[in-house]
Amino acid sequence: MESIVFSFHKNEVLVRKEGDHYLFPTYQEIREQFDYRYLFSLDDTTCFLAKDTVEMDGFSYVNIQELRTDEKETKPYFYAMITAYQLNNWYRNNRYCGRCGHEMIHDQEERAVVCPHCHHIVYPKIVPAVIVGVINGEEILLTRYAKGFAHNALIAGFTEIGETLEECVQREVYEEVGLKVKNIRYYKSQPWGFVDDLLVGFYCEVDGDPTIDLDTSELKSGIWTKREDIVLQPDELSLTNEMMKMFKESKI
């Protein structure tokens, strides 16, 4: 069985560049030098997490976004790395009990940390968020964020406490572009460990007036776009891009 070890420093991951590909260190390369923790298995590959920053000849830390690729050979390891990154942040952020301040220990039966003093249990944080394809006849609403990601996207937002996913769809669409929607239907979901998300995709139709009232604090553009005019993101990793592509190809 193969193995890889993920080691993170802030938002960077330890890799060795070989041509156009990035390779992670293996358990065999790292086991004698550093402390590590088992994470999960990806088919026949066992994945570990180095508990501390690692220095190894030929390896260096690079921003995790540099590894974003949809190449067939690399794509599964990108998703594994993002899951490892999410777990690494969770471990680091939950070293001490939020109730009594004692140091947490790892549960022996499930993925959780437990306070040995007050027995408080903390599980990995998963944040539900919606991705919304708003349709008006043969057009879909494409947006661009006011900051950060520079490519086309769809309406998106985090679910609030006490809110259903469908209510979140309605609220986010109204807050960001001032539209009412109907016929909300689930498409699919995707874990997205950059910010602990579980993304849940929905399509819906505009209900009434399609005039866009843009929230410029969130978005810099919101445009009704015909299928043939949709410009997709530079890779096919995100649920957002898949949903835009499905509409572009008339599969929705």
TrEMBL record:
Record's catalysed reaction(s): a 5'-end NAD(+)-phospho-ribonucleoside in mRNA + H2O = a 5'-end phospho-adenosine-phospho-ribonucleoside in mRNA + beta-nicotinamide D-ribonucleotide + 2 H(+)
Keyword Cytoplasm among record annotations: no
Assigned EC number: 3.6.1.22
Keyword NAD carried by entry: yes
Transmembrane segments: none
EC top class, as a word: hydrolase
Alphabetical keyword list: Hydrolase, Magnesium, Metal-binding, NAD
GO molecular function, one term: metal ion binding
GO CC, one annotated term: cytosol
InterPro entries reported in the protein's UniProt record: NAD-cap_RNA_hydrolase_NudC, NudC-like_C, NUDIX_hydrolase-like_dom_sf, NUDIX_hydrolase_CS, NUDIX_hydrolase_dom, Znr_NADH_PPase
Origin: domain of life: Bacteria
Cofactor(s) named in the record: Mg(2+); Zn(2+)
Coiled coil: none
Residues of the Nudix hydrolase domain: 125-249
GO biological process, one term: NAD+ catabolic process
Family of the protein in this entry: Belongs to the Nudix hydrolase family. NudC subfamily.
PANTHER family xrefs: NAD-CAPPED RNA HYDROLASE NUDT12, NUDIX HYDROLASE, NUDC SUBFAMILY
Protein name: NAD(+) diphosphatase
Organism annotation: Kandleria vitulina DSM 20405
